[in-house]
Amino acid sequence: MLKTMQPVLVSPAWAETAAARMVQLTQANRAGGELPASCYRLGEVNGTRRPYEVDQGVAVVSVAGLLVPKLGYIGSSWVTGYDGLRFQLAHAFADPDVRAVCLDIDSGGGIAQGCFDLVDWIVAAKKAAAKPVGAICSEEAYSAAYAVACAADSIAVPRTGGVGSIGVWLMHWDYSRMLEEAGLKPTIIQSGAHKTDGHPYAALPEAVRADWQGQVDALRQLFAETVARARGIDVAAVLTTEARCFEGPVGTAEAVRLGLADAVLPPDQAFSALVDHVRENQ
Predict the structure, then answer these.
(1) Would you please indicate which residues are annotated as catalytic (active-site) residues?
(2) Number of Cβ atoms within 10 Å of the Cβ of 55
(3) Looking at the domain assignment, is residue 255 inside a domain?
(4) pLDDT at 126
(5) How many helices (H) and strands (E) does the chain have?
(6) What is the pLDDT of residues 270-279, one digit of tens each?
(7) Which residue numbers in the chain have pLDDT < 50?
(8) What does the alpha-carbon distance between residue 78 and residue 85 come to, in Å, rounded to a whole number?
(9) pLDDT tens digits for 71-92?
(10) What's the CA gap between 119 and 127, in Å, rounded?
């Protein structure tokens, strides 16, 4: 499972994948070297190279894989940085050849840090640019990815996809018994009562657990308020979902009924609908 003491916004089924991608990202950062051919650093963008594809006047911005606060590059199919999304969208909103933006989303979520600030920025920036934004799931937009989708004016999800998972979690690992059986006993020397809160070499103290529970509850409330404001539904209705993933034909239809999505459509049809909307409102 995902080893973390940091709140995360990922769907339950995606936790193992998120953990693997965090390891992959850490290893890649340590190794350094060249990026894959499909990727390029934000500083490499110039006047002749757009940081997105444009199709029929619509800028297509990919939101794929694990979502993290700072990545420094774009183009990966397995990790996306909030910094990169903001960079791409800022360019798209300022691009005179772009009349609308498509968020092409396929992600089970990511890190909480930076997510809601990005969502608030997108909402304000799209209004200032007067350009519509459509979120098209291909296939899923869970948790942090769903929060990003809510910044759009519309959300479309295919019948085999899913949306939701409006919740927060973090995990504590207690290695004390394993270390004891191995004949190891760590000694922690600290200054400051809270300096080592949540360390993995002992059971989690109840006071720390209560503090962490308060943190995730507050983040979930922020998440629910963000969704409610963007989707025009009650905060209580969002909280009532209890972080459920609305997936498959039944779940996606219910998501539309609850106001969490606007349409159940294949990605190509959803994109055509966005293009038609742009043409009708030119």
Answers:
(1) 143, 195
(2) 12
(3) yes
(4) 98
(5) 9, 12
(6) 999 999 999 9
(7) 1-3
(8) 14
(9) 988 988 889 999 999 999 999 9
(10) 13
Structure tokens at 54: 């444009």
Please classify residue 260 by burial: count the beta carbons closer than 10 Å to its beta carbon, then call 0-12 exposed, 13-18 middle and 19+ buried: buried
The total number of structural domains that make up the chain: 1
- Specify the pairing of strand 8-10 against strand 100-111: antiparallel
Supply the CATH number for residue 259's domain. Answer: 3.90.226.10
Query: Rounded to whole angstroms, what are the CA distances from 275 to 56, 265, 270?
Result: 7, 14, 9
Distance separating alpha carbons of residues 276 and 22, to the nearest angstrom: 39
Please give the single-letter amino acid code of residue 77. S
Cα–Cα dist 207/82, whole Å: 33
Closest alpha carbon to 106 in 70, 85, 78: 78
Both tokens of residue 167?
């919740």
| Distance separating alpha carbons of residues 34 and 53, to the nearest angstrom | 23
pLDDT for position 10: 95
**One-letter amino acid for residue 254 of the chain:** E
The boundaries of the domain holding residue 130 are 8-164+244-277
Q: Residue 33 has which token pair?
A: 């070297």
DSSP for residue 255: H
- Which tokens in the block code for residue 242? 């209890």
Q: Residue 1: its pLDDT value, please?
A: 41
